[in-house]
Amino acid sequence: MERLASLFEELERLTGVADIAYHEIRDGRLNPVSKTKTDQLGVEKWKSVHAEHPVYIRHDRLLREMMEHPQTAVVQDVKNDPRSADEFFLFGIDSIMVLPVMQHEAVKGIVVVASIGARHDFTEEEVQRAESLVFEYRDAFQLQHKEDPST
Question: Which stretches make up the GAF domain (predicted)?
């Protein structure tokens, strides 16, 4: 988890956005693993909302597209983008960057950088550097998954 925390710190320094999380994809849905602690959205609330409202890949356009064509997805204006999922509104997200975590050429998880309470226009430079950081920290994601022999 220390490596994930370091990645989250780097992503926050890069973007200025504090709400950052990692979800594994298992059984066709998102499984929350780790998140930054912020005033906007605490870890316990984040996990409880995910438990009450599971995010299934097949019901989420943005995630379906990411599974088919793995690349970073950016929604600058959640309120006006047709790719926005109900979950974005549940968490009060205004802008979001979703980075795929790859293993063996398949998406096994996502890193989410979510601006809550204010829009953030993610720049191309931020996206490219964030992708590089996720790749550099790829060992952090493998550590989370070691306990599950089915992956």
Answer: 4-133
